[in-house]
Predict the 3D structure of the following.
Amino acid sequence: MCGIAGLIYKGKSSGIGQELTSMLQALKHRGPDSTGFALYGHPKADQYIMRFKVAEQEEVKKGFEIRKQMKERKAAVDARMAEMGAKVEAQEQATDYAYRYVFSFDGDLRRLADYIEDIEGAEILSLGHGLELIKDLGDANRVSAQYGLDDFEGTHAIGHTRMATESDVDIRSAHPYWAYPFNDVSVVHNGQLTNYWNKRRALERRGHRFISNCDSELIAVYLADSMDRDGDLEESMHRSISELDGVFTYVVATQDRVGMAKDVMAAKPMVLYESDDLIALASEEVAIRTIFPHEIDTYDPYEGEVRVWQS
Amino acid sequence: MAELKQEQQSHRMGMHTEQLAGRTQQIFFSPEEAENFTYSYAYAVDTNKHTEFDVAALDSKAINIKIRELMSQGYGSIAVQNPGAKHSLGVGILNRLQLHFEGSLGYFGVGLIDGPNVIISGRVGWSCAENMMAGTVVIEKNAGSTFGAAIRGGDLVCKGDVGSRTGIDMKGGTIIVGGRTGAFSGFMMQRGRMIILGDAGKSLGDSMYDGTIYVGGKIADLGVDAVEGEITDLDIQWLDRKLSLYGLQTPNGTKNMTKIVAGKKLWNYDNLEPTEKKLVL
């Protein structure tokens, strides 16, 4: 089933970490397996933020050897970043297996990403100027507390509560997905793509890589590829309505925009609230109402509809 | 009558001469039998006895239990404050009741009801009034998809816009949409009437067996086997009367509405006339 949510402020920032946590917690019944956040803070043009992990949560519970491997993998990440000329300015360890690096770099970002992900067990969750992607097993309150998201200030965010149906219950299969190799692009999705393998093979032939077997990742990679060709998010989203087959509603975020698209059957839910300074969207209104306890006017977008909002 | 064969039963009732087949079943109905109109376990309430309560701190189950407690105490007029878009509120009410939700409902609001008059000041989520059998439900704002799925009777009114698949599998009653409705509205409709004052999305009335859809705005396109019918004086009179009940009107007048019915080219359900289907659905 899965639950998706997002919010974007126009011309101001807010406590989006806490707000998205409450929205996603209200959607727990749609997906209790894992929860993910894509939070957009205040970007600095000369700095990148990278969130990465060096093991799955389940692996950490399985013995002592993994602890040694995690240290080795983290050391390998540091070595490869230094080798590529990336200067790490700050680093935080969010969990035993997840890190947040702030670094400066003026080289080829895709090469750097590929070089890091070539380390066995290391996976970049997000990479960009403003995007911070956090995902882990459990509900929103648990993941938020684990990664200290309550104090996160920013302009926009999207999130996901996952009910695993076609792939494993692990961080790799959790949403959101970073649209590699585009920095600051992330996607969450509710639904099922029926032409997944056809599209995946076509995208792989174009040089894109997949880290999971989750159909939602395909949307992120598809949009990245499409934007790479003509650079326009909204146009790419319109194209996705006819080129992606199945039932889906997805939400995409970039450094300064949030967009949503719904398939032509309108089989997956989405509720929108729009005011002068805030747009909030979720699979169910009950999620939006956690940040608006009073009555609000909401509506369902229609079949084949694409909407994009600027922060 | 039960000892007669199915064909003999049909003949005796003067309904038709065909052998009923397939999924069709006959249900015999006597208006003189009280059990056809009331449930032995429904509450006897007084609509002049009013109460209201705030549900901001309650979950869906607790709210529904509270409504039942109040009905068991004879309250026939209940106002529910701050429903907060919670799911499955006001479901399964089988007696007369004036029920007012002062706010919005989530999914599956007032489903499986038989008799109450419900007003919802806010919006409703997916599948509002699913399988409604009798009564009225009036929503002041918008509604989500599968609005009035499989309803069998009563009036279901949304004054705003509604999502897709409105009245899917509808088996009776009336659905009125004040604004527009999404794709596949009236999908597999079997009986009843739907009035859409605004625009209708694509595949309107797809695979409808029977029933009638009236549209005041534009229709994106018709679904399989849905065709335009001729609007009659009887239609106009009924539309005017029905819309006036809820203070609604169509900008271009009811006589200019488009009437959609089943072409019945795909109609293999059986050969019953609509009046006869009342007995079998």
